[in-house]
């Protein structure tokens, strides 16, 4: 049974669906979650340019606002779950794996899948795929499918 769930959250629909699943599960079992936003630096490696400190600061502030959305979602679901928030900078999959390694209470990662294919997948890779390969803990990938969305909605009405 998980002691703490790590939820990478970028505000996208797949991430929101994964967050809802994690919140409902954490509420049912009485354990906390850690919601994490990663300022993506992977494009820096491709372009060779790093953003200025002012831009980086703005990106971190944007991450904080996105994590506030996660707390609002918990409120809308009416769940009583302790939520930790973390914003960091790096390559998303590496930071997610590092967080799972560093926080010994985390024993499950719940994340959404964007379902990238083609050239975008070849260049950027799949965050979920890399997390699955390198994670020291179990990973649950919530796909954006109508039946999954229906299941989350049904659970939230209980």
TrEMBL record:
Entry protein name? Universal stress protein
Species annotation: Methanopyrus kandleri
Q: Where are the transmembrane segments?
A: none
Indicate the family of this protein: Belongs to the universal stress protein A family.
- What's the superkingdom here? Archaea
- CDD domains from the entry? USP-like
Q: Report domain UspA positions.
A: 1-143
Q: Name one Pfam family in it.
A: Usp
């Amino acid at each position: 049974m998980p002691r703490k769930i790590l939820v990478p959250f970028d505000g996208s629909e797949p991430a929101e669906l994964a967050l809802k699943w994690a919140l409902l599960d954490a509420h049912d079992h009485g354990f906390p979650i850690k919601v994490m936003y990663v300022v993506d630096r992977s494009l820096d490696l491709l372009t060779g340019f790093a953003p200025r400190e002012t831009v980086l600061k703005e990106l971190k502030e944007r991450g904080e606002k996105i994590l506030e959305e996660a707390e609002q979602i918990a409120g809308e679901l009416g769940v009583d779950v302790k939520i930790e928030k973390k914003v960091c900078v790096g390559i998303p999959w590496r930071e997610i794996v590092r967080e799972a390694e560093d926080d010994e209470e985390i024993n499950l990662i719940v994340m959404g899948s964007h379902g990238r294919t083609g050239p975008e997948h070849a260049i950027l890779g799949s965050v979920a795929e890399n997390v699955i390969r390198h994670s020291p803990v179990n990973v649950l990938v919530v796909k954006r499918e109508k039946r999954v969305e229906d299941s989350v909605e049904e659970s939230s009405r209980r």
